[in-house]
Amino acid sequence: MTIVVLMILSLAIGVPIFAALGIATLGELLYSPVPLATLAYTLYSGVDQFPLIAIPCFVLASALMTRAGITGDMVRVMRLLVGARPGGLAAVTILACMFFAAISGSGPGTVAAVGALMIPAMARDGYDEDYAAAVASSGGTLGILIPPSNPMIVYGVLAGVSIGDLFIAGVLPGILMGVLLIAVAIRIARRRGYRSSIGATADETLGKAVWQGAFSLAMPFVVLGGIYVGVFTPVEAAIVAVVYALLVGVIVKRALSLAAIWEALSETSAICGGLVLIMGTAILFGESLALNQVPQRLASAMLAVTTDPTLMLLLIGALLVFLGTFMETLSTIIILTPILLPMVTQLGVHPIHFGIILVVASEIGFLTPPLGVNLFVSCNLTGLPLEKVARAAVPFIVAMAAALIAVIVFPWFSLAIVG
Questions:
Q1: How much is the pTM?
Q2: Per DSSP, which regions of 10-68 are E strands?
Q3: What's the CA gap between 120 and 93, in Å, rounded?
Q4: Structural domain contains residue 5
């Protein structure tokens, strides 16, 4: 158990997650017969994983979409569709997040792209700014649940399961989560008397907006449709997303300059660089855990509490929500997958189902301080203090917790459409 103690101590004193994993593993290797050459080899092989290519490509596609105005086309259609109803702009924000999530794979990225457009629009229409920020923050959590999803890709690599199946499994839970968030948003809007004034006009009709934004709106269907019908793999779909965003941005929209493309590439490098560092040490850490039989010991301890798979998953879900308050999503998945997956599969839980539970539970962490990444993005967009936005997000957290319980109790939400 030395490896676990070293990791916890490293994290407690503020050591970065990739270094904490590496230090813990190195400390264990120094007192084991395993040659230290394993360290260098596994650090390399940990990131030498073909499916991981999809992550920088989806991040790049998202960055290009934002700069090309593709996000604006999506928001415009949603606004004309439901924007004039009471609480309509809140529903528009969440629907736009769902649509954008079908390409981006990132929670904070979804908040930044959609929130930058919709938070000011809601404020101009009389919505309280903290409510608008909470709506955008909660809608942005869908970025990691509705496929494609960067955390699903990482989990798929660690768990050795099909990333395509994970993507398909995220569809129904994503729709469920989106419906619950919209219901909460509209209920609050009606209670506070928010009334949207924006709808279709003679100059800007829904049909005209759909026609003008047809190439932008087709992007999720091209990318995800290709995966679901078997035309290309998730990695190939990520590359298609980049090419499609470039073609639409340069040829159709004529909004992507060389400077904008360079900004998108720089943003992608900054986001994905940290993942490369973490993945290498995470794979090494997971192998060391297996070598020391840590998953088996933890499984024995937890199975002494209960052997009921549903109750076990509820306990794990509560643990994940707690960890999400101070641990970043990818770090949580990377650390816990090699520990918890062997235990839950021993209880008969499908690895795909467990992966979706990990992602849904991690979504709640985007809205819970002190980490609450989505909250910070909304605070940067509005200038509001974190405490105010966090309080406004509480009803949405309750809705997400309800969705988590539903996904745990009813596995068919995750497995119904998986082939």
A1: 0.82
A2: none
A3: 11
A4: no
For residue 18, pLDDT over 90 is answered with no
Lowest mean pLDDT among 125-134, 225-234, 359-368: 225-234
SS3 assignment, position 325: coil
Torsion on CA atoms 320, 168, 272, 397, rounded to nearest 10: -40
Q: Structurally, how many domains does the chain consist of?
A: 1
Residue 128 resides in a domain: yes
Query: What is the model's pLDDT at position 166?
Result: 93
Distance CA 30, CA 278 (A): 21
Query: First-to-last CA distance in the chain?
Result: 39
Between CA 320 and CA 404 the distance in angstroms is 11
What residues contact residue 289 under an 8 Å CB cut-off, 6+ apart?
A: 3, 4, 295, 338, 339
Contact between residue 177 and residue 401 where contact means Cβ atoms under 8 Å apart: no
Asked whether residue 133 is assigned to any structural domain, the reply reads yes
Identify the DSSP state of 137.
Answer: H
Identify the residue with better confidence: 223 or 181.
Answer: 181
Is there a contact between 411 and 418 (Cβ–Cβ < 8 Å)?
no
CB 358 within 8 A of CB 336: yes
Cα atoms in the Cβ-side hemisphere of radius 13 Å centred on 157: 26
pLDDT at position 197 over 70: no
Token look-up 């709106």 returns: 217
Q: Given this model, what pLDDT does residue 370 score?
A: 67
Three-state SS annotation for 247-301? HHHHHHCCCCCHHHHHHHHHHHHHHHHHHHHHHHHHHHHHHHHHHCCHHHHHHHH
CA distance 65 to 284: 35
User: Quick one: CA dihedral 29, 30, 35, 39, positive or negative?
Assistant: positive
Helix (H, G, I), strand (E, B) or coil at 199: coil
Q: Residue 338 sits in which domain range? A: 34-415
